[in-house]
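FYI - complex with iron/sulfur cluster, inputs then prediction.
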Amino acid sequence: MAKLRDDNDTDLKEAMLYEKGKNGKVTCNLCAHRCSIAEGKQGICQVRENRDGTLYSLVYGRTIAQHVDPIEKKPLYHFLPGTAAYSIATAGCNFRCRWCQNWDISQMPREKGLIVGEKASPQEIVNSALRSGCRSIAYTYTEPTIFSEYAYDTAKLAHEAGLANIFVSNGYMTREMLETFQPYLDAANVDLKAFSDKTYRKHIGARLQPVLDSLVNMKELGIWLEVTTLVVPGINDSPDELREAAGFISNKLGRGTPWHISAFHASYKMADVPRTSIAILRQARQIGREEGLDYIYIGNVAEEAAQDTLCPSCGTILVGRRSYFVTGQRVEENRCPQCGITIAGVWD
Ligand code: SF4
């Protein structure tokens, strides 16, 4: 058996949402890979292991990152703007995107054959969030679905303490995972990494349809949703593909769903690819407008006013932002103070 953990295994946690099968195999139902895992083996994410017919999480209570971030950095622009989110992650991911910006922690088990992390119980995470003056806990940086047990226990305690819970996710979870989390999950930002199944299969190691299903499921379950597309040159930047993505968001999730179009910076296995041009990002924004989206933001570049929230009816600046920080907020009781229309989101 591969030894992934760096110390003893006394804090292993039995997994949620799995089934025992024949010959000691188990099936994990957390994400759409639905791995069938033989004894002594791990799932695709490498952080869930079958030991003698029982599936365990190898990352419960072990954070690879803990930071206080502005919620705008997730990015969430229409959910408690101007507040801080206590952000945590464990090692591992169920995707292997060739351009991953956090590959050193997301691919650590796969690339280094190692799982490390600082021990922190769910209660300690909640206490740290409260001490830091945060209004929410964000499960982020890597994929929270693969550390569901840890996120779930933390999220329950967070709600009891009056904190919101946020997933920053690739959207590959199953419907049953989302239904389990729904009572405690308030908001999510989901990456729609491409609008091509071929790209998902070739560059990510996954499929497109389960991501689209999760986006619709989150909307149905009443979780506040924002969508991000990292525009990678030569991968997902054709006008036709961007139009399909924008059209899906507008038609299936609603025109009030914020779409964050972010610039790619060279990373991981795409270190020689140039960064996304501002012209492509502006073109994507124009396409989003033509497809009817009300709130489109350009991120990861210095572009004047590209992060401000404007009233889609009268154009009043409702939330001003600079470098992830809110410079002014004018939404009153979910409405534009100028023309009175409802502004989609969860506002203070
Ligand atoms: S969470 Fe991990 S083990 Fe479970 S189905 Fe997804 S990749 Fe497989």
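The longest strand covers residues 224-231. The chain has a mean pLDDT of 95.
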